[in-house]
Amino acid sequence: MCREVPVLLTARNRLDLLRHAVETVVRYGYSNCEVVVSDNSSEDDVGGYVASLSKPRVKYSRTDHLVSVTDKQNNALAHSSGDYVLMLGDDDGLVNGYFRGLKRVLERFVEPDVVYSRAYQFAYAASSPTTRPDTCR
Length: 137
What we know:
- The chain is of the alpha/beta class.
- The protein has a single domain (7-108), classed as Spore Coat Polysaccharide Biosynthesis Protein SpsA, Chain A (Alpha-Beta Complex), CATH 3.90.550.10.
- The protein has four helices and four strands, in the order E-H-E-H-E-H-E-H.
Protein backbone atom coordinates (compact mmCIF):
# COMPACT_ATOMS: atom_id res chain seq x y z
CA MET A 1 0.00 0.00 0.00
CA CYS A 2 1.35 3.40 -0.97
CA ARG A 3 0.95 6.00 1.75
CA GLU A 4 0.48 9.69 1.17
CA VAL A 5 3.87 11.45 1.26
CA PRO A 6 3.58 15.19 0.77
CA VAL A 7 6.70 16.99 -0.41
CA LEU A 8 7.21 20.24 1.47
CA LEU A 9 9.28 22.75 -0.47
CA THR A 10 10.43 25.92 1.26
CA ALA A 11 11.33 28.91 -0.90
CA ARG A 12 12.72 32.43 -0.62
CA ASN A 13 13.76 34.61 -3.58
CA ARG A 14 15.21 31.80 -5.71
CA LEU A 15 12.45 31.09 -8.19
CA ASP A 16 14.95 29.89 -10.78
CA LEU A 17 16.10 27.12 -8.42
CA LEU A 18 12.59 26.38 -7.13
CA ARG A 19 11.45 25.60 -10.69
CA HIS A 20 14.04 22.81 -10.90
CA ALA A 21 13.09 21.45 -7.48
CA VAL A 22 9.39 21.30 -8.33
CA GLU A 23 10.13 19.76 -11.72
CA THR A 24 12.06 16.88 -10.15
CA VAL A 25 9.20 16.14 -7.74
CA VAL A 26 6.55 16.32 -10.47
CA ARG A 27 8.65 14.27 -12.89
CA TYR A 28 9.66 11.56 -10.43
CA GLY A 29 6.61 11.68 -8.16
CA TYR A 30 3.77 9.26 -8.07
CA SER A 31 0.00 9.71 -8.06
CA ASN A 32 -0.20 10.25 -4.28
CA CYS A 33 2.42 12.99 -4.31
CA GLU A 34 1.22 16.31 -2.94
CA VAL A 35 3.63 19.24 -3.19
CA VAL A 36 3.31 22.20 -0.82
CA VAL A 37 5.41 25.24 -1.71
CA SER A 38 5.92 27.43 1.37
CA ASP A 39 6.98 30.88 0.18
CA ASN A 40 8.84 32.83 2.85
CA SER A 41 7.72 36.31 1.76
CA SER A 42 9.65 36.21 -1.53
CA GLU A 43 9.96 39.14 -3.87
CA ASP A 44 9.78 36.62 -6.76
CA ASP A 45 6.34 35.68 -8.09
CA VAL A 46 6.35 32.18 -6.59
CA GLY A 47 2.54 32.14 -6.36
CA GLY A 48 2.24 32.97 -10.06
CA TYR A 49 4.65 30.20 -10.93
CA VAL A 50 2.74 27.61 -8.86
CA ALA A 51 -0.57 28.75 -10.41
CA SER A 52 0.93 28.46 -13.91
CA LEU A 53 1.59 24.76 -13.32
CA SER A 54 -2.17 24.09 -13.22
CA LYS A 55 -1.57 21.02 -11.07
CA PRO A 56 -4.11 20.60 -8.25
CA ARG A 57 -1.64 18.54 -6.19
CA VAL A 58 0.87 21.44 -6.13
CA LYS A 59 -0.28 23.83 -3.41
CA TYR A 60 1.00 27.27 -2.47
CA SER A 61 1.28 28.99 0.90
CA ARG A 62 2.96 32.31 1.67
CA THR A 63 4.01 34.07 4.84
CA ASP A 64 3.28 37.80 5.03
CA HIS A 65 6.69 38.55 6.52
CA LEU A 66 10.10 36.90 6.74
CA VAL A 67 10.05 34.00 9.22
CA SER A 68 12.63 31.52 10.54
CA VAL A 69 13.45 28.27 8.76
CA THR A 70 11.50 26.32 11.39
CA ASP A 71 8.44 28.55 10.98
CA LYS A 72 8.42 28.26 7.19
CA GLN A 73 8.72 24.47 7.47
CA ASN A 74 5.88 24.43 9.99
CA ASN A 75 3.84 26.59 7.60
CA ALA A 76 4.31 24.02 4.86
CA LEU A 77 3.46 21.19 7.25
CA ALA A 78 0.25 22.94 8.33
CA HIS A 79 -0.90 23.03 4.69
CA SER A 80 -0.14 19.37 3.98
CA SER A 81 -1.75 16.04 4.66
CA GLY A 82 -0.33 12.54 4.81
CA ASP A 83 1.35 9.94 6.93
CA TYR A 84 4.93 11.08 6.26
CA VAL A 85 6.54 14.23 4.84
CA LEU A 86 9.56 14.86 2.68
CA MET A 87 11.17 18.26 3.33
CA LEU A 88 13.14 19.92 0.52
CA GLY A 89 14.57 23.38 0.06
CA ASP A 90 14.20 25.41 -3.11
CA ASP A 91 17.72 24.36 -4.13
CA ASP A 92 17.08 20.61 -3.64
CA GLY A 93 15.75 17.99 -6.01
CA LEU A 94 14.89 14.32 -6.31
CA VAL A 95 16.47 11.64 -8.46
CA ASN A 96 14.63 9.20 -10.67
CA GLY A 97 13.49 6.24 -8.60
CA TYR A 98 13.32 8.05 -5.26
CA PHE A 99 9.62 7.36 -4.71
CA ARG A 100 9.90 3.74 -5.89
CA GLY A 101 12.55 3.16 -3.23
CA LEU A 102 10.51 4.98 -0.60
CA LYS A 103 7.45 2.91 -1.48
CA ARG A 104 9.45 -0.33 -1.03
CA VAL A 105 10.64 0.79 2.42
CA LEU A 106 7.13 1.78 3.51
CA GLU A 107 5.75 -1.56 2.31
CA ARG A 108 8.53 -3.58 3.96
CA PHE A 109 8.40 -2.01 7.42
CA VAL A 110 5.23 -1.58 9.42
CA GLU A 111 4.77 2.13 10.10
CA PRO A 112 8.41 3.19 10.53
CA ASP A 113 8.97 6.27 12.68
CA VAL A 114 11.41 7.77 10.20
CA VAL A 115 12.87 6.94 6.81
CA TYR A 116 16.34 8.25 5.99
CA SER A 117 17.98 8.15 2.59
CA ARG A 118 21.36 9.00 1.16
CA ALA A 119 21.77 12.25 -0.74
CA TYR A 120 23.83 13.42 -3.66
CA GLN A 121 25.31 16.85 -3.22
CA PHE A 122 26.12 19.36 -5.90
CA ALA A 123 26.13 23.13 -6.17
CA TYR A 124 24.46 25.25 -8.81
CA ALA A 125 27.05 27.47 -10.47
CA ALA A 126 25.59 30.69 -9.06
CA SER A 127 24.76 29.39 -5.58
CA SER A 128 28.16 29.67 -3.92
CA PRO A 129 30.52 32.64 -3.73
CA THR A 130 33.40 30.36 -4.74
CA THR A 131 31.60 29.18 -7.90
CA ARG A 132 30.16 32.47 -9.10
CA PRO A 133 31.70 33.55 -12.41
CA ASP A 134 32.32 37.08 -11.11
CA THR A 135 34.44 35.78 -8.20
CA CYS A 136 36.32 33.01 -9.98
CA ARG A 137 39.75 34.02 -11.21
